[in-house]
Here is the input.
Amino acid sequence: MEPPLDNPKKPKGHAALGRDIQAKIGQQLRAYYDSLVEPTPDKFADLLRQLEKPGKGAAEEGNG
Here is the structure.
């Protein structure tokens, strides 16, 4: 029996969103957060920079 077409299985450890979408979400979150609090706390900015670094996915962290 085949799985339903509307619910394809994704391999574990792979991002569900493309990098362009992730970058756009990061930009929107940063803009929203900046409108709430000035300046952006260093800890939050560091976390955003870590998310934007290429090749630093959860899948790679578990393979070390």
About this structure: The chain has three helices and no strands. The two ends are 36 Å apart (CA to CA).
